[in-house]
Design brief:
This protein is α/β, with parallel strands linked by helices and 397 residues long. 37% of the residues lie in helices and 17% in strands.
């Protein structure tokens, strides 16, 4: 059956038309915002031309040299090589000085202009010059430069330095028979926790994070996900001070066909949350920006979480420095945050930065916002998907 094009005032109405015309098993292939309407392309069966994700190709090295297991070993090898070169130079210089000393025996050095000559004393029998052979230079055994595992340079390109990669060194013992993608999946499986956020949670979700981390767009993506599961949604904004904060989420809610409201204070937010949950709706709170640089903003966010009994979920941007991300996770951990959503991965190639802070603070990876599109723009996190996300920009290098 060919793809079907459906136009409706909002996403909720479009979903209803899709199910009515194509059945419960219909698949949404794409959707487009037409300004005053939503265009949906759907198919009754599986999406066309869809292929399973393929792992990245294997990286080969010349000679089949086994990988080294300590990513810092090459630095020591270079230091030893430089030291050996300096020792050889000193020995060569010492041998030359010995020759000159032997030549001066039996004569007195006389300066003539800028040059030094040897004046032979009278009545002294001269002997043929002795050939001075410098002592044999000791052979300094140089360490063979170790081979970097192919995953290491890829992680460096993805935003980590060697110090941050070192905790993963033991996983390189799997050898070159495993591709970098397979090794990274193994690391993510054994060192990190994944706990996806369900499409229709029975408790309120409070999206928190600093300014510009993608909370509002993530709230819209979660709303589209819940609406696609056939559940009504209430979007609440507490970002009433930022210019355009309320209007942006309100516009998303209108396009999606979700209910929208805003709260000027904590008491009002708690009242709206209770009403939405009692009505059987998925409740998503778009909290105002909070940062440890402004401790008062963190206290306000903490009060909202306490009064609404919402689960705090941190929107963690991938396009920040790894050390800044680690500091951020530590600050929000004080608000009892257990799960995070990776955001802003579609605007950077250096997507490995969050791995450092997540490893040190032990938060669970829930969802990945991997696309700028609202519908289908957020997916459940897994080791396979996160490995694909991190290595994707470099798979053809």
């Amino acid at each position: 059956m060919e793809n079907v094009r459906i136009i409706a005032p909002n996403l909720q109405d479009a979903m209803a038309k899709v199910k009515a015309e194509l059945g419960e098993n219909a698949t949404i292939i794409s959707w487009n915002n037409l300004g005053d309407a939503i265009e949906v392309i759907a198919h009754a069966g599986k999406p066309q031309n869809q292929q399973p994700a393929q792992p990245l190709g294997e990286f080969q090295t010349k000679g089949g040299t086994a990988p080294r297991y300590d990513v810092f070993e090459h630095e020591e090898a270079l230091r030893q090589k430089e030291l050996a070169e300096r020792q050889r130079a000193l020995r060569a210089y010492g041998g030359k000085a010995t020759k000159e000393t032997k030549a001066d025996k039996g004569g007195v050095g006389v300066l003539v202009g800028a040059k030094s000559k040897t004046a032979k004393p009278q009545n002294v029998k001269t002997e043929p010059d002795e050939t001075v052979t410098p002592p044999p230079t000791e052979q300094v055994e140089e360490k063979k430069k170790p081979t970097l595992h192919p995953l290491v340079p890829l992680l460096v390109k993805a935003g980590l330095n060697l110090k941050e990669i070192k905790p993963f060194a033991t996983f390189l013992e799997y050898g070159l028979e495993s591709s970098p993608h397979e090794i990274l999946v193994k690391i993510l499986e054994e060192k990190y926790d994944f706990e996806p956020l369900e499409a229709a949670p029975d408790h309120a979700i409070a999206l928190i994070g600093p300014a510009g981390c993608g909370k509002t767009i993530t709230a819209a993506k979660l709303a589209a996900r819940a609406l696609s599961a056939g559940v009504e949604v209430l979007l609440i904004s507490t970002d009433t001070e930022r210019q355009g904060g309320v209007e942006q989420l309100k516009g998303f809610a209108k396009k999606l066909g979700a209910t929208f409201n805003f709260a000027d204070n904590v008491t009002e937010a708690a009242h709206l949350v209770r009403g939405g949950l009692d009505a059987g709706k998925v409740v998503i709170i778009d909290c105002a920006a909070a940062s440890h640089i402004e401790p008062a903003s963190l206290r306000v966010t903490e009060r909202i979480i306490e009064e609404t009994q919402a689960e705090p979920v941190l929107c963690l941007p991938c396009d920040m420095r790894s050390d800044d991300i680690e500091d951020m996770i530590g600050e929000y951990k004080s608000l009892d945050v257990l799960r995070i959503i990776l955001t802003r991965s579609d605007i950077t190639n250096r997507r490995a930065g969050p791995l450092v802070g997540l490893l040190s603070h032990g938060m669970k990876i829930s969802l990945i916002s991997a696309s700028p599109f609202i519908a289908g723009g957020i997916v459940m996190a897994s080791p396979q998907r996160l490995a694909n996300l991190i290595l994707e920009p470099f798979e053809n290098l």
